[in-house]
Structure formats: structure tokens, C-alpha cells
Amino acid sequence: MPVAENSDVKTYFPWLTKKHHNYRGTIQLLRKGRNWYIAIPIQVSSALNQEVNVQAYTPIGVDLGLRHLAVLSEPISGKRQFFSGKEVGYIRRHFRSLRRSLGKKKAQRAIERIGQKETRWMKDYNRKLAKNMIDFALQFDRPLIKMEALDDIRQTAKSMKKADRTIHSWAFYQLKQFIKERAVKHNIPVVDINPFKTSQTCFVCRHVEKDNRHRGAFQCKNCGRKTHADLNAANNIATSTSLAE
């Protein structure tokens, strides 16, 4: 979409008129280097999710985060897979260090090129990650992928600087889109789950307490069960019946 100073730009977004797609919230115009992005929040009616008979599928929970970009779990078989965020964190820090070393005014074009290179790298990484996640799901009979709503992922990163939160939120949104696109090719349904207290609830005894989780570790204050915090959340997401609104 072209952007020019002191002029009106009219465009048409056909997907806004699709069934079950409702506009809500505030439209944001974002700039990354020389590129401009428009973020339009859309509420997708849960009627789409209700068309899926979840009882007929094998649920796979997906917990998205920063330390581990994704943790997948199929609770019945106990199979799980962790995707570390170390490589992404290292690359992000590398590009940020390059931008800082160049300064601001004299090397603006160089900074923009670095930003574009980082964006391409992240896009390629997300595509590969989405493929690996779908490959995990394909080992099960009639898999159903359940993921937490994007809003909770933003809350996970709330302690980060504003610019970093924006980047991570955009990267997670892109990852979810790639997962859904690839899932369609394999006829794998994907539903968004309300992640309310999934990180604080014990998957075994269902006891809910904030102190159950400490960083990457989960130890239930009621039954004493110990496990990885993200794995516990992924199990709760897999068995949750609370669809995101």
C-alpha cells in the first residue's frame, strides 16, 4: 500500500468481509526500515472452531514462549517436542548489536538493510519451524492442533522493551499463520484456546496456584508433581475445551 505525506490512500481488504471475520480494536500503522505495515485486529467467530468435533481428533497442545519458542505435547501418548529459542535470541542480539554499532543518522541505509535481513531470516526460520511442528502432528491419527491465543503471548513478553515486544509479537503472529497455512494442506484443524491459568494449573491434580510455576520449572504445591513449566502448559492447552473468543 503506497504511503504519501498529505494525501489520502484508499485500499480494499477483501478478507475483512469474510464470514466470521469481525473488525475490532485500533488499527496500527507500523514502520520497519523502509517498509510500512498495517495491523488490523480481527475477531474470528468461534463458530469456525465449533465446526470441528474435537472428540474425534487427537489433541496436540502448543505452548508458545520466549525461552522455548514452542513446546508441543500429546498427553495420551506422552510424546512431546521442544523447540528452543536460543538461536533466535542469539540472532536477534547479533542484529541489534550491528545496528547499535552503526549509530543512527550516518548509517541509516545500512541499518535498514540489516533490519530487512533480520526480517527475512526470521520469516525463513518461522517457515521451517512451522514445518517441523506439523511433522510432529502428522505422526498421530487425526491430529488437532490447539494453540494459545496471541494476546497471552504478548503478556508473556510484557517485561521486554516495547520495541522488542512488538518484534516478538509480530514474529509469533507470523509463526501462527505459517502453522495454519501448512496445517490446511494436511487437513489438520487448528483452534485457538483461552490460555487462562494454563501456566498455573497442575495437569495432574488440577490445583491452581501462581507459585506452582517458577521460571522454567513447575512444582505443584498440592500434589508435589515436578515437570517443565512449558510442558505442563502445553498439556493443559491440549486438554482444554475453552475456546478463545
From TrEMBL:
<dbReference type="Pfam" id="PF07282">
    <property type="entry name" value="Cas12f1-like_TNB"/>
</dbReference>
<keyword id="KW-0238">DNA-binding</keyword>
<dbReference type="InterPro" id="IPR010095">
    <property type="entry name" value="Cas12f1-like_TNB"/>
</dbReference>
<feature type="domain" description="Cas12f1-like TNB">
    <location>
        <begin position="172"/>
        <end position="237"/>
    </location>
</feature>
<dbReference type="GO" id="GO:0003677">
    <property type="term" value="F:DNA binding"/>
</dbReference>
<protein>
    <submittedName>
        <fullName>IS200/IS605 family element transposase accessory protein TnpB</fullName>
    </submittedName>
</protein>
